Amino acid sequence: MSEKSASNNKAEFKRQSSPFREIISADHPIYKPAKGRYWLYVALPCPWAQRTLITRALKGLAPIIGCSVAHWHLDDKGWRFLEEGDGKTNERHWFDIAGGISSVNLNTSTPVANIPNNAHRLLVDGTDEPHYGYKRLSDFYFKTKPDYKGRFTVPVLCDLETCTIVNNESSDIIRIMNSAAFDEFVGEEYRQVRLVPRSLEAQITEFNSWVYDKINNGVYKAGFAECAEVYEREVTSLFQYLDKLENLLDKKYTDLEAKYGKNNKDKILDRYFAIGDTLTEADVRLYPTIVRFDVVYHQHFKCNLATIRDDYSRIHTWLKNIYWRHEAFQRTTDFTHIKLGYTRSQPRVNPIGITPLGPKPDIRPL
Ligand SMILES: N[C@@H](CCC(=O)N[C@@H](CS)C(=O)NCC(=O)O)C(=O)O
Fold first, then answer.
1. Strand partners, 69
2. CA distances from residue 245 to 8, 210, 251, 366 in whole angstroms, order as listed
3. Which residues pair with residue 158 across a beta bridge?
4. Separation of 49 CA from ligand 1 center, angstroms?
5. When you count CB atoms within 10 A of the terminal residue's CB, does the N or C end of the chain come out lower?
6. How far is the CA of 283 from the centre of ligand 1 (A)?
7. Per-residue model confidence as pLDDT tens digits over 212-259
């Protein structure tokens, strides 16, 4: 999310690669599957972190892999946790049981302005780090690698036994969660959830590759461009790929209408996903960008050739369907953290740090 993640001398945004890439498996020399051994550190503005929260919820891993939420405000020392001891209440349990992080009550609390950057509203702005009392995410990075020189990004999956970072790349973390590693700790209903079914693997991989480069990362390439020429090129490309996505979903929706009848909305919506007719990793990786689009990327990253709600009707229906009918998505979406996080943490993009009140509502009803 940081505007300083990296850029090259052509004023283009380049995302740094993630240095910690271990997996958890019975064959791994150190990181064996276990209940309560691993902990996920996230920040709710971050779309990459949200992928991991969604997958954790869908796979029933909330009781197996705990989670801490950094304060939504990213400063020049990186993400920070709320003060030690603050979060040691029963409410933390409620946070985890929610299958992600819930702040359903917050989504209706407006306006979001007038909150100081360093406000500490317990279990509203984030949680503490309950194991080591770390104040900063950077503490984990230095503990794992004392000479670490990169950025301190979320999400981070940590091993509490060795106090090291197992992995800090969201696409790996969701594959770890989606593997059979934790099957023995979850019920059959979760074991059956396969976000990358073998029969759809090639299609999902192809979809993910352009969605990642042109849409997930595309909004950042437009928003963090350091000159007009780069911005214009990137924003144009982004909307070309949103058009491609709209066409793909249009075909999907029309085929479902032909099969089940135009009026059979429930049957259609039950099957209306990006690839195949069940929820897959393709939806998990697409959603965090689309749900942030109208509320932040449109104005903050100047991705304003169109909105999802008024100009991309099939993407909009897909988004509303996922948000309103799938708890793992809705309960890991915190519009307040999202809006505040982007608009208050990127002074080059928004120097005064005023958080726009609109659009209203954050997401329309289905
Ligand atoms: N490749 C990483 C990217 C994660 C990432 O860029 N996270 C941003 C938040 S959206 C971050 O933590 N930035 C902190 C910083 O750059 O200081 C992943 O997908 O896990």
1. 42
2. 29, 10, 10, 20
3. 39, 165
4. 8
5. C
6. 20
7. 999 999 999 999 999 999 999 999 999 999 999 999 999 999 999 999
pLDDT one-digit tens code per residue, 172-208: 999 999 999 999 999 999 999 999 999 999 999 999 9
**152 marked as binding residue:** yes
Residue 92 labeled ligand binder: no
Q: Copy the structure tokens of residue 311.
A: 């100009």
Ligand 1 pocket test, candidate residues 74, 149, 153, most atoms within 8 A of CB? 153
Q: Where in the chain is the domain with CATH 1.20.1050.10?
A: 198-345
Nearest Cα residue to 174 out of 51, 34, 57: 51
Q: Which CATH class is domain 38-191?
A: alpha beta
Question: Where in the chain do CATH 3.40.30.10 domains reside?
Answer: 38-191
Q: Tell me the CA–centroid distance for residue 79 and ligand 1, in Å.
A: 10
pTM of this prediction?
0.92
Q: What is the CATH number of domain 198-345?
A: 1.20.1050.10
Query: Are residues 46 and 53 in contact, defined by beta-carbon separation less than 8 angstroms?
Result: no
ipTM reported for the complex surpasses 0.95: yes
* Distance (Å, whole) CA 310 – CA 318: 14
Looking at 159-227, list the stretches that DSSP marks H as alpha helix, in order from N- to C-terminal side.
Answer: 170-178, 188-191, 201-210, 218-223
H or E segment and range at residue 253: helix 228-260
Strand 38-42's sheet: what is its strand order? 66-69, 38-42, 156-159, 164-167
Ligand 1 atom with minimal separation from the 49 CA: 20
